[in-house]
Amino acid sequence: MKNWQKVSRDEFVDFIKSYPCDLVTDYYMDVISWNDFRDGRTFPESMVAIVDAMGVDCRICKDYI
Questions:
Q1: DSSP string across the chain
Q2: Count of other CB atoms within 10 angstroms of residue 45
Q3: 23, 33, 43, 48: least surrounded by Cβ within 10 Å?
Q4: Phi first, then psi: what are they for 62, rounded to 5°?
């Protein structure tokens, strides 16, 4: 199980900007996810950041950094 952390919007944006590789963004069922597909990772294990469509519930996962 992933270690999701609920963070502020600013912390979320900083995490995305400072991530060490390019992320692939996906939108599905009112959730936007940022995915790290390095090393053959597949969805949903590839997700490293998620936010609801309203931009309120921001979560990050530092497991793959």
A1: ---EEEE-HHHHHHHHHH-SS--EEEEETTEEEEE--GGG--TTTTEEEEEETTS-SEEEE-TT-
A2: 14
A3: 43
A4: -95, 15
| Alpha-carbon separation of residue 41 from 6, 10, 46, 47, 57 (angstroms) | 23, 27, 5, 9, 24
- The end-to-end CA distance of the chain, in Å, is 16
Q: Which residue has the tokens 């400072």?
A: 18
In tens, the pLDDT along 4-54 reads 999 999 999 999 999 999 999 999 999 999 999 999 999 999 999 999 999
Cβ neighbour number for residue 60 with a 10 Å cutoff: 23
Residues 6+ positions from 9 with CB-CB distance below 8 Å: 55, 58
